[in-house]
Write a structure and sequence with these properties.
InterPro entries: HTH_LacI, LacI/GalR-like_sensor, Lambda_DNA-bd_dom_sf, Peripla_BP_I. Keywords: DNA-binding, Transcription, Transcription regulation. GO terms for molecular function: DNA-binding transcription factor activity; transcription cis-regulatory region binding. The chain is of the alpha/beta class and about 350 residues long. It folds into three domains: about 5-50, 434 Repressor (Amino-terminal Domain); about 60-160 and about 295-325, Rossmann fold; about 160-295, 3-Layer(aba) Sandwich (Rossmann fold). About 45% of the residues lie in helices and about 15% in strands. The chain has helices spanning about 5-15, 15-25, 30-45, 50-55, 75-90, 105-115, 130-140, 160-175, 190-205, 220-235, 250-260, 295-310, and strands at about 65-70, 95-100, 120-125, 145, 155-160, 180-185, 210-215, 245, 270-275, 290, 320-325, 325-330. The protein is elongated, with a radius of gyration of 25 Å. The chain starts with 5 loop residues before the first helix and ends in an 11-residue tail after the last strand.
């Protein structure tokens, strides 16, 4: 059904478009009878003024653009909620673009931000966004990276020490006596995934006799995790990893289910550490040990940093905030000498 426009309201009320505009936006310029007539017509048609157009005429959109890699991952949902907290407190709204692990979608979102003239952009990049971010900056739209860092040093960022996070996860498994570790993650081209593996590898390299097997997936869904858990369970016990570092909790929760559904005990046979510490990690059938990222705080901090740049309060400092990992230890690793 076509959305009702101001012309439709004018025809229904039997007045000019300018009268409709005055009745809805400057009612003191027309009679009370006309205001009531126009409002009645607008109500009948379900007409809603385009706030974005009104704000653009005033020289601002009132919007912050934000892209995330995949909103299906609760980590990104929490990060968006934090950004919305800060935006709302400043009287602004967040226009969200979900890339869904797709470079083309990510670029479409960034082009949309340019077209609607967002006042600033929060970008959690999936692909190479450099040229598109430069276009935003040339238009005077400030950009802050979230859960990422800018290798060129030209963009402010709020990120997480993923090398330290991967090392923390593997150190924990090694401390429980595990020696045949595997790292399960999607797309080694993604910086966060790659750095988590690098951290895990550095921990393994420091322990004689320990090994780390990379297991790469296409996506990070719990259903795919279940399938990989079943595949790992099907191996001979001597060929099976006894400890898993998993690149996010969605994947890890599925892995645990796949293992136990095929008779492999968690953590007695295979211990599992996830990443992000999403809400479901603590209430899973086997509560999941996980590397904790303060997702909501990261989103809020990034939005506050962006708002400071929009208002001109940030000064010349770029600002790069790096959060450090913590480990939430639960039943998926608690056993066999855990401490």
């Amino acid at each position: 059904m076509k959305r009702a426009g101001i012309r439709d309201v004018a025809e229904r009320a039997g007045v000019s478009i300018s009268t409709v505009s005055n009745a809805l936006n400057r009612p003191h310029l027309v009679s009370e009878r006309l205001v009531e007539r126009v409002r009645a017509a607008a109500d009948q048609l379900g007409y809603v003024p385009l706030q974005a157009a009104q704000q653009l005429r005033a020289g601002r959109s009132g919007l912050l653009g934000m892209t995330v890699i995949n909103i299906a991952n609760p980590f990104f949902g929490d990060m968006v909620a934090g950004a919305e907290d800060a935006a709302s407190a400043a009287g602004m709204r967040v226009l969200l673009g979900n890339s869904s692990d797709d470079v083309a979608k990510e670029r479409d979102h960034l082009e949309l931000f340019e077209r609607v003239q967002v006042e600033g952009a929060l970008v959690s990049p999936f692909g190479d966004t450099g040229p598109w971010l430069e276009r935003l900056r040339r238009r005077g739209i400030p950009v802050v990276l979230v859960d990422a860092v800018d290798d060129t040093g030209s963009l402010p960022s709020v990120s997480f020490d993923d090398v330290a996070g991967g090392r923390l996860a593997a150190d924990h498994l090694l401390a429980t006596g595990r020696r045949r570790l595997a790292y399960v993650g999607a797309r080694s081209a993604v910086r966060q995934v790659r750095e988590r593996r690098e951290g895990a590898q550095s921990a393994v390299d420091a322990v004689p006799g320990a090994s780390l097997e990379p297991i790469w997936t296409e996506r990070t869904t719990s259903e795919l995790g279940r399938a990989f858990g079943e595949q790992i369970a099907a191996r001979h016990p001597d060929d099976r990893p006894d400890g898993l570092v998993v690149s996010n909790d969605h994947l890890a929760i599925g892995l645990v289910y796949g293992l136990i559904s095929r008779g492999v005990r968690v953590p007695e046979d295979v211990a599992v550490v996830g990443y992000d510490d999403i809400e479901f990690a603590a209430i899973a059938a086997v509560p999941l040990t996980s590397v904790r990222q303060p997702a909501r705080e990261m989103g809020r901090t990034a939005a506050e940093m962006l708002l400071a740049r929009i208002s001109g309060e940030a000064g010349s400092a770029q600002g790069n905030i790096v959060y450090q990992p913590e480990l939430a230890v639960r039943a998926s690793t608690a056993g066999r000498g855990a401490h």
